[in-house]
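Async update (no meeting this week)

Hi team, since we skipped the sync, here's where things stand on the single-chain job. The sequence we agreed to prioritize is pasted below, unchanged from the tracker. I ran it this morning and attached the output directly underneath so nobody has to dig for it. Comments welcome in thread, and please keep replies under the output.
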Amino acid sequence: MTIDVEDYFQVEAFASTIERSDWESLPRRVERNTERLLQILNDGGAQATFFILGWVAERHPELVRRVVAAGHELASHGFGHIRVDSQSFDEFRQDIRRSKRVLEDLAGVPVRGYRAPTFSIGGSSKWAHAILGEEGYAYSSSVYPVKHDLYGTPEAPRVPFSPVPGILEIPLTAVRMLGVDIPASGGGYFRLLPYSLTKGLLNHARRVNHSPAVFYLHPWEIDPEQPRQQSAPWKSRFRHYLNLNRTEPRLRRLLRNFAWTRIDRLFLGSERGPFPVVASWTGRSQVSSQDRSGRMTSSAGTSSCSPTLAERSFISPVGSGSSNGPSVTRRIT
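Output:
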């Protein structure tokens, strides 16, 4: 479970309508909405990774500390909610360095994860992973292997992969059905699709991807009373405001139907085993697994992954034969 902590006026859909210079003058609702999410997660017995915008953290320092105190993972959403593919190498480095420093100084815990605004790593911005590694990050969850007008890298693997040594990319969950990549990670699709379909997609994704689902949500998505941006394009308003009143009850159902935890505990912690992983951006057919003897193999033959990558990145779900979807993991011994 992941939460992208930004306010309603910072979303990409309103970038052409709301000037960045106006952010300070707009009523902020991110703290109250995030507090509500913390309560919902607590009620559901779930833990999550909170990708917090540095801009928000500077203005709501106690919120950052409450997220950590509640047992959730603190991670970076960048500082100023600027798309990676619109920044230079140096601008990106300064953005992620500033965000990491602000979050760590406020909470006193290491920040190892990053999510790009609008899933904007991919295509012409694959260079970002190397800079993330140089700046002390261990993983990114910024690639969405679907086709969308605002984001998406359809050719990317649908399971965790290592784009450069030392960095793990944990993509948003998607499944391929009838030749089409179907999003199964929440966000606007969680509000658009019937809940039964979301549940079915998550169960199907677990079966075919053999990896835990990565689900995301924004605090503003549980706030139907937020200010309306009437001057925004019709499509942007439709996407942003659709079914906001249904998000909270659906989220509570999701927490009852599936077990959710933090990204770092699944992919970086001590409870590791054989989740699929691929070596790089190349080829979805390169998904690796373990045969019965414990050797690394892939559908294309022997895996090209190094032993170090294999030892670090392979995880196994508990009860993988059940139909309850993403599950807690255990160490394979």
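Quick observations from my side:
The longest strand covers residues 2-5.
The longest helix spans residues 89-107.
Reply here if anything looks off.
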